[in-house]
Amino acid sequence: MKLSIVMTKIHKWLALIVGLQLLLWVLGGLVMSWFPIENVRGEHNIREDESLIITVEDNLLSIADFLESIGPVSRIELKPLLGKPTYQVLTTEGSTLLFDANTGESLSPLPEELSLQIASADFAGEAGALSTTMLEQGNSEYRGPLPVWQVVMNDAEDTRLYVSPSTGDVIARRNATWRLYDFFWMLHIMDYKNRTDFNNPLVIFASILALVATISGIWLIFYRFARRDFRWLGIK
Q1: Do 152 and 212 sit in the same domain of this protein?
Q2: CA 27 to CA 31: how far, in whole Å?
Q3: For residue 116, what are the β-bridge partners?
Q4: Which residues contact 50 (CB under 8 A, 6 or more apart)?
Q5: Where a domain ends, among 156, 174, 192?
Q6: Residue 64 sits in the same domain as residue 154
Q7: Which of 109, 104, 100 is nearest to 80 (CA)?
């Protein structure tokens, strides 16, 4: 069988097999480049943090006294929470806890009311919160540490903020733009379950097929056209 016939068959069947995925790769790239990444991450709706100024009048609990009350730790960090000073502690077991820096009182795990206040303070939009739910398992849009508070905001972008009950940090922001982006990201990397593995066997296999289809197509271009059409390349 002639090489041209073999290359034609290879190109035709590979184009049929991977053609749809090639279209999805191009479409996904267009969608992902269309939206500003700041909007996808919800950063345009983050309220600017107010600086926490500590004075001697704040009467913070000394580190020595604090350590005496809780025992050995790996790290201590002074951080603001709703305008008040707190100690964020990394224990020797690897867990993170939050304490009132004035009294030493434990704040972890954060209650629902406090997580709602944190989400509302973080959100720059005018809409309030619709609901607050403690998630013990991840979902299609949140794949981070658990458990976590999910706070649903009442805005046009259907924003959902995820607040860590251990640290009080907003650790994820999701909105309609993020969900559209994530859908095309899933199609782009062909990880239809976790949407995180860019090196999964399926996308590698599809990439190899697409490469072979492209090479065979390039070969057919030179074969189909008369040689005089490529004289400008120095081909005789």
Answers
A1: no
A2: 6
A3: none
A4: 80, 83
A5: 174
A6: yes
A7: 100
**Would you call 213 helix, strand, or coil by DSSP?**
helix
For residue 154, report the phi and psi dihedrals to the nearest 5 degrees: -95, 65
Determine how β-strand 129-135 pairs with β-strand 96-100: unpaired
- Judge if 114 and 148 occupy the same domain: yes
Mean pLDDT to the nearest integer, 203-218:
82
What lies within 8 Å, CB to CB, of 174 at 6+ separation is: 42, 141, 142, 159, 160, 161, 162
**pLDDT band at 11, cuts 50/70/90?**
low
In angstroms, rounded to a whole number, what is the distance separating the alpha carbons of residues 177 and 180? 5
From residue 199, alpha-carbon distances to 13, 196, 216 in Å are: 25, 9, 25
- Determine the length of the chain: 236
Q: From CA 196, how far away is CA 215, in angstroms rounded?
A: 29
Tally of domains within the chain: 2
CA distances (Å), 227 to each of 6, 20, 216, 224, in order?
21, 32, 18, 9
**Residues 144-162 pLDDT 10s:** 999 999 999 999 999 999 9
Q: If you search the block for the tokens 């607050």, which residue do you land on?
A: 132
In this predicted structure, the answer to whether residue 6 has a pLDDT above a threshold of 80 is: no
